[in-house]
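Prompt: May I have another protein with tokenized structure?
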Amino acid sequence: MTTTPVETETDATAEEDMRLMERIAHKDAAAFQFFYRRYGGLLFSTISKVLNDHHDTEDIMQEVLVQLWQKAHLYEPRKGKPLTWLTTLAKNRAIDRIRSKQRRARLSEDFGTEHKVTQPEFDDSGHDLLQVKERDTLLRRAVTRLTPDQQQAIELTYFGGLTQAEVAERLHEPLGTIKARIRRGVTRLEDMMKTHTR
């Protein structure tokens, strides 16, 4: 079986990428810049397809580049090419951003829409949007007044985009413990938000 020029070129690029990753792991800035020039456009496009939001895409791109610089030493060649590793990381971070925004919106709505009467013609008015923003700010402030354990669990779940199981794994705690912390934290947040809106 003969190898085609394309296959040879792909293999050579993958080997070069692996060497670049090794250099990045040793904090070689030139290797990092070269890798970014080679794949920055592709990574940006990958993230953008998931998020469809320019501002969020820029944020996640920045996070991915920081991860590349800080965690290149964790890359294992047997698990695939460097580009595959990085695009998977980029997609996961983008999906985390979507989940985080959805959870934050749900949490904010839970504390603000119970008694609100909506009229279709006034939906998303400037006043409503301002109220949502103010409520989000109040909620973030209230979260800082929880116990450190509750605050950490709620921030990772609602603002960090992780599932409760992922939070338990990250904090090396039983899932039941994390669920209890989140439940107690949300109850305290409800009390604080009710006090503020009276």
